[in-house]
Amino acid sequence: MATKARHFLKIFLAGLMALIGFTSCSKDKSSMLVMYGTPYGSLDIKAKIVDNNDSPLNDTKIRVRLEEQGTHYTYNPYSVYDSPGYDFQLNKKSNVSGNIDTVLNRLPIGPNSKETFFVYHAKDNPSHEGKYLDDSVKITPVKLEDAEDWYWGKYKLEGTLKLKEKPAESE
After folding, report:
1. Of 62, 52, 63, nearest in space to 131 by CA
2. Neighbouring-strand partners of residue 135
3. Residues 132 and 145: beta-carbon distance below 8 Å
4. What number of other Cβ atoms are within 10 A of residue 64's Cβ?
5. CATH of domain 40-162
């Protein structure tokens, strides 16, 4: 009998918790605003990757690095954490003209991203057979849309990354 009572109590409490969860979200716009998730921003990225002779480099992956400058701006879904920066690899590779044009939405970045770089890592580009040195170029974000609530706005990142060839190793 005690087992049946415990089983009934577990089912009852599970149902009660579900009802409490549904009532916390309201369709009434005048009620308390409940926000879930993470603050986000958007980036419109236009990168050009060239070698020392300004020849475009095809099939090249780069990263975007957002450095922190004294304020918190990098978030995870649970808490704000202190970080030296936010680094992410673009999913697109450069085309035959050396260009990468992409828009990234819902990134956990915001207007405090003052130091921004396009970064080349040789390890991300095995097709180059280690021909180029790791390098980066500083770019200035340009605001395209204003921030509103948890939307931190849209920014344009535009720049050219000129890669230097690795020096030949002496035997």
Report:
1. 52
2. 120
3. no
4. 22
5. 2.60.40
Token representation of residue 39: 């603050």
Contact 114, 66 (CB under 8 A): no
Burial 114-126 (b: 16+ CB within 10 A, else e): eebbbbbebebbe
**pLDDT per residue rounded down to tens, the chain (171 residues):** 788 888 888 898 888 777 776 555 555 544 444 445 666 778 889 999 999 999 999 999 998 887 654 444 433 333 333 445 667 778 888 999 999 998 877 776 654 556 788 888 888 888 888 899 999 898 888 888 887 777 778 888 899 999 999 887 755
Token pair in block for residue 157 = 């990142």
